[in-house]
């Protein structure tokens, strides 16, 4: 059954005349609202986790490369579970997949309890991995579910509208990290003590700075390096004192994950009792490999999966390492650097609504190309311009990223029959593995080359996305010319 044909029959009576088709038909409004809430849920998890890369580096005294395993575990869970989620949807329903997603989300979040009580980094890693099993179920089901809730002509705009609420969850996660987690961390208090030259902290730095501490106000990165060195020496010479810091800070980290687990379980119950539309076709889907073969024969899908992998990698590196950039290049505290991350998310949120409006006038491919080229320019600014100017450029990259995920998604799945869209969605969610691989690479680059030079990695990603946008409006969106006989 062709989804585009079936969706035309779902139009409201007023949509069948001269009026443009509705973005969200009235019959699907409640289902659209409930499903859109899910977008906020995975946004919260994504951006609550990003600052933990820096936090865990200090709390567990590990390298940037090792701390980047937080993102590797988080986003590799998508790759692991996206295809099983698609099989589940083929066998059961979008609604059932969403409920499984919330259950796994809650289990993964609750693993923060044994992880924090045992001060065990690897249980945290396992918890993030399981948590994203749930997010993979949610994203694999919610994105095509939203596409199906109305006419094919407005599918990409509808997905952009739903995705516009994802940053609300992300912003909430950032605010929790900035206002509740960061100010409560003892590693932050120790950093403040080093900055104020408190003897209780300076005693752990005498070996590194025999001639006295540097001028933290003029030497970018010096305070961050000194605080890390002090914590390392405390762990070696005063392990009980360091363990007390670990225990306290991991309890702070645990609290929001327990809370979000309760919210996920509440949503599971809500979806269990809600009446949701069922877009299952009466006849069974074609065999798996036959559907995969048809998908791979579509260049917009193949190239869309590649572009999505590069996009997610760029997004996660920009949002994760803005913390490092602010602390090392501008001398900000963790909470101050996180405030810049919040500013980036506010810009992202505003820009996504603007882009949804612009798509009424500008084709998706052309807009994608323009914004990706702008992202290349801002990323170059973050690399080449010093201090706060570079940080401002890095934050402005978020304005360019706002439309990328849903637009690439919509282009890749454009005009696909439902049975192809289910597996196609899984392929695009598997592409989120870019968010696992690229932060790990960038963590290594930060250790070896420094934080500014590491942003050449997302720059390359934006070049790839720009090329996909150009390909889209020059080839995939080009109208077909029919010869007259």
Tags for this model:
75% helix; 0% strand; Growth Hormone, Chain: A; 2 domains; 485 residues; disordered C terminus; mainly alpha
Architecture of the largest domain in CATH? Up-down Bundle
Count of β-strands:
0
Q: Can you say what the CATH homologous superfamily of the largest domain is?
A: MFS general substrate transporter like domains
Let me know the average pLDDT: 86
Query: Number of domains in the coordinates?
Result: 2
CATH class of the largest domain: Mainly Alpha
Helix content: over 70%
Helix/strand/pairing category:
mainly alpha
How many angstroms does the end-to-end distance come to?
Answer: 30 Å
Low-confidence stretches: 1-17, 480-485
Can you characterise this structure?
This protein is an all-alpha fold. It has 2 domains: 22-205 and 214-277, Growth Hormone, Chain: A; 287-480, Up-down Bundle (Growth Hormone, Chain: A). Helices cover 75% and strands 0% of the residues. It is built from 24 helices and no strands. It has helices spanning 3-8, 29-49, 52-59, 64-67, 69-91, 94-110, 112-117, 121-148, 155-163, 166-181, 186-195, 199-202, 222-237, 239-273, 288-296, 299-320, 322-329, 334-358, 364-384, 387-401, 404-412, 418-430, 434-449, 456-476. The protein is globular and about 75 Å long. The relative contact order is 0.15. Residues 1-17 and 480-485 have low confidence and may be disordered.
């Amino acid at each position: 059954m062709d989804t585009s044909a079936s969706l035309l029959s779902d139009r409201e009576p007023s949509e069948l005349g001269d009026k443009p088709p509705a973005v969200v038909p009235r019959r699907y409004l409640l289902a659209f609202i409930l499903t859109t809430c899910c977008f906020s849920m995975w946004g919260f998890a994504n951006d609550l986790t990003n600052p933990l890369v820096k936090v865990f580096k200090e709390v567990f005294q590990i390298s940037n490369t090792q701390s980047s395993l937080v993102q590797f575990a988080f986003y590799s869970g998508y790759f692991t579970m996206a295809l099983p989620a698609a099989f589940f949807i083929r066998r059961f329903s979008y609604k059932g997949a969403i409920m499984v997603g919330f259950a796994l989300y809650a289990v993964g979040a609750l693993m923060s309890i044994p992880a924090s009580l045992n001060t065990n980094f690897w249980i945290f890693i396992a918890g993030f991995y399981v948590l994203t099993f749930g997010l993979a179920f949610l994203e694999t089901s919610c994105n095509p579910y939203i596409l199906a809730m109305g006419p094919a002509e407005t599918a990409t705009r509808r997905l952009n509208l739903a995705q516009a609420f994802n940053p609300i969850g992300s912003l909430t996660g950032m605010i929790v990290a900035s206002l509740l987690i960061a100010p409560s961390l003892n590693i932050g208090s120790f950093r403040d003590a080093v900055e104020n030259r408190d003897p209780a902290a300076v005693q752990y730095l005498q070996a590194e700075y025999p001639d006295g501490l540097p001028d933290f106000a003029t030497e970018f990165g010096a305070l961050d390096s000194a605080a890390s060195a002090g914590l390392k020496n405390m762990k070696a010479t005063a392990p009980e004192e360091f363990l007390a810091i670990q225990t306290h800070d991991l309890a702070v980290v645990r609290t929001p994950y327990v809370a979000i687990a309760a919210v996920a379980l509440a949503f599971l119950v809500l979806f269990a009792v809600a009446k949701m539309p069922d877009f299952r076709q009466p006849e069974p889907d074609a065999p798996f490999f036959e559907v995969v073969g048809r998908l791979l024969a579509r260049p917009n899908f193949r190239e869309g999966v590649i572009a999505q992998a590069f996009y997610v990698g760029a997004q996660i590196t920009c949002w994760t390492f803005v913390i490092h950039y602010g602390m090392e290049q501008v001398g900000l505290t963790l909470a101050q650097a996180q405030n810049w991350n919040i500013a980036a998310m506010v810009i992202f949120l505003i820009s996504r609504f603007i882009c949804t409006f612009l798509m009424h006038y500008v084709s998706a491919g052309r807009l994608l190309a323009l914004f990706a080229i702008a992202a290349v320019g801002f990323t170059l600014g973050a690399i080449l311009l010093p201090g706060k100017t570079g940080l401002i450029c890095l934050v402005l990259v978020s304005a360019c990223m706002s439309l990328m995920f849903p637009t690439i998604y919509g282009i890749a799945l454009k005009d696909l029959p439902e049975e192809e869209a289910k597996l196609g969605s899984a392929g695009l969610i598997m592409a989120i593995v870019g968010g696992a691989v690229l932060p790990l690479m960038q963590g290594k680059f930060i250790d070896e080359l420094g934080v500014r030079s590491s942003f050449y990695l997302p720059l390359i990603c934006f070049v790839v996305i720009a090329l996909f946008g150009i390909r889209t409006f020059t080839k995939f969106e080009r109208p077909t010319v029919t010869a007259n006989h």
